[in-house]
Design brief:
Layout lengths: L1 E3 L4 E7 L1 H8 L5 E5 L9 E8 L4 E16 L8 E12 L7
Parallel strand pairs: 2-4
Antiparallel strand pairs: 1-2, 3-6, 4-5, 5-6
């Protein structure tokens, strides 16, 4: 889902556990995604941990800001974008109604 606020766009994204955990622990500070949402520098990514085994969200979230972007990188398909992200907020045990 993508929501627009006054100055920023907020993108809610499913993220598999091993990638989510690395971001949650500040080991991974980038995202590579298909650019089907017109990601821009300054956008907010709400990464929600998705467990493919149970086919549901775990309740953990990381809210990040996109601080730099690259597209058309060698070896990266032209429909994908690489983004440097900075974590702004982390939360556990949050579900849709929270």
């Amino acid at each position: 889902m993508t929501r627009r606020t006054d100055a920023r766009v907020i993108h809610t994204l499913k993220t598999w556990p091993k990638y989510f955990d690395a971001t949650y622990r500040n080991i991974k500070n980038f995202e590579i995604r298909e650019n089907d949402r017109d990601f821009q520098q300054g956008d907010i990514l709400e990464l929600r941990e998705w467990d493919p085994e149970i086919k549901d969200y775990t309740g953990r979230r990381v809210t990040c800001e996109v601080v730099m972007m690259w597209n058309r990188l060698p070896g990266l398909d032209s429909c994908y974008v690489a983004m440097t992200i900075v974590a702004l907020m982390k939360a556990e045990n949050l579900f849709d109604g929270d």
